[in-house]
Design goal:
The complex is a heterodimer of chains A (about 160) and B (about 190). With about 160 residues, chain A is mostly helical. Chain A has a single domain (about 5-160), classed as Up-down Bundle (AhpD-like), CATH 1.20.1290.10. Chain A is about 70% helix and about 0% strand. Chain A has nine helices and no strands. Chain A has helices spanning about 5-10, 15-20, 25-40, 50-60, 65-75, 80-90, 100-110, 115-125, 130-159. Chain A is globular. Chain B has about 190 residues and is mainly alpha-helical. Chain B folds into two domains: about 10-65, no CATH class; about 70-175, AhpD-like (Up-down Bundle), CATH 1.20.1290.10. The two termini of chain B are about 30 Å apart. Classes of the chains: A mainly alpha (about 160), B mainly alpha (about 190). Chains A and B meet through helix 2, helix 3, helix 7, helix 8 and helix 9 of A and helix 3, helix 8 and helix 9 of B.
């Protein structure tokens, strides 16, 4: 069982667990992507506990209690500060650069259509360098991928 | 009969400076699969190469989802990608995948209907796919068991539906890169 099976509530005796394995490229690929944004060898200065806290926040924005619980467990193991716990819970009152980061994460998760050049300029102004802007974008995009695959698989399982 | 919408390809430009090949690290070059003497690597690839680990992992997954053999027909994957791109507001991705759908089906009827916002003229299979793509792309997802039932009722099996979920979801990813990190221009 991998992270996506856990998120979708699949166990090895489910028909859907086997159906997922018809595409080993997707199973392995999604897992490698997860590692690349949550536990990268080079975190570009965006620490793993910040990444997991943001993932927890985005799981909540996507209304996904299973992934929220999973990221809560992961975050607890990474020595989170009070600030990161508040960030994970969806609070908005932070110092920079976290204030700008959470505004961006919320906007791109909920309304990607509204993204403009100015939003990237705000990240740069808050002190993020280009690798950090790209790494943050990939993290946001991944969690929005993960929540949708999990949501789709859960619907299949329930019907 | 509605007259066809003609979609011209757009050019994409990043809001941040992409990696210059002359300054790229060995890991970035490996992720981009190029040598320093290569002249043409797109701005998109060079922008994402700022974080080579995620770029490499996502490219492998993206190519599998959109191009792997068997399972869901290619035009159906493109329709899922198009539905997601419309919801997420990524004009660049929408044009690319609308054009690809038209090429693969040798018809621009579906694309025309969607660009004119007339999904009611779609056939039952395309309608079920497009509706699911839109609803799964909402944040949070608005897809329900009825959407899965609709896909099954037009003959899709579990493997095809899993392929479709991935095609839609990977555009929940791709749109949040292309529309966020840069913008599309015509000509």
């Amino acid at each position: 069982m991998d992270a996506m099976d856990k998120a979708a509530g699949l166990s090895p005796d489910d028909a859907l667990f086997a159906a997922r394995r018809f595409r080993p490229e997707f199973v392995q690929g999604a897992e490698e992507c997860r590692v690349s944004v949550l536990q990268p060898a080079n975190d570009q200065g965006l620490a793993p506990n910040l990444r997991v806290a943001l993932a927890r926040r985005m799981a909540a924005l996507n209304g996904d209690p299973v992934l929220m619980a999973e990221y809560d467990v992961q975050l607890a193991q990474l020595g989170p500060t009070e600030e990161l716990l508040a960030l994970a819970q969806g609070e908005t009152d932070f110092n920079e650069p976290l204030a700008t980061i959470v505004r961006h994460v919320d906007l791109i998760t909920m309304t990607p259509k509204k993204a403009e050049a100015g939003h990237i300029a705000l990240l740069a102004k808050a002190g993020l360098n280009n690798p950090q802007i790209v790494a943050l974008s990939e993290l946001i995009a991944f969690v929005n991928f993960q929540t949708r695959v999990a949501a789709g698989l859960r619907l299949m399982r329930s019907t | 009969m509605i007259s066809s919408v003609r979609l011209k390809p757009l050019n994409w430009h990043p809001y941040i400076a992409p990696v210059e090949l002359s300054e790229a690290t060995p890991e970035q070059l490996e992720a981009m699969k190029v040598t320093p003497s290569a002249k043409k690597v797109s701005e998109y690839v060079r922008t994402l190469a700022h974080d080579p680990e995620s770029y490499l992992a996502r490219t492998i997954l993206f190519n599998a989802i959109m191009y792997v053999e068997g399972g869901l027909a290619r035009p159906d994957r493109e329709l899922g990608a198009l539905g997601a791109s419309i919801v997420n507001g990524c004009k660049f991705c929408a044009v690319v995948h609308a054009r690809r759908h038209a090429e693969l089906t040798k018809s621009d009827q579906v694309v025309t209907a969607l660009y004119l916002d007339k999904p009611e003229v779609l056939g039952p299979r395309d309608a079920a796919i497009y509706s699911f793509a839109r609803r799964l792309s909402a944040a949070p997802s608005e897809a329900t068991a009825d959407d899965i039932a609709a896909l099954r009722s037009v003959g899709m099996d579990d493997r095809e539906i899993i392929d479709l979920i991935h095609a839609i979801s990977i555009f929940g990813w791709a749109n949040r890169l292309m529309h966020v990190l840069g913008h599309a221009e015509s000509g």
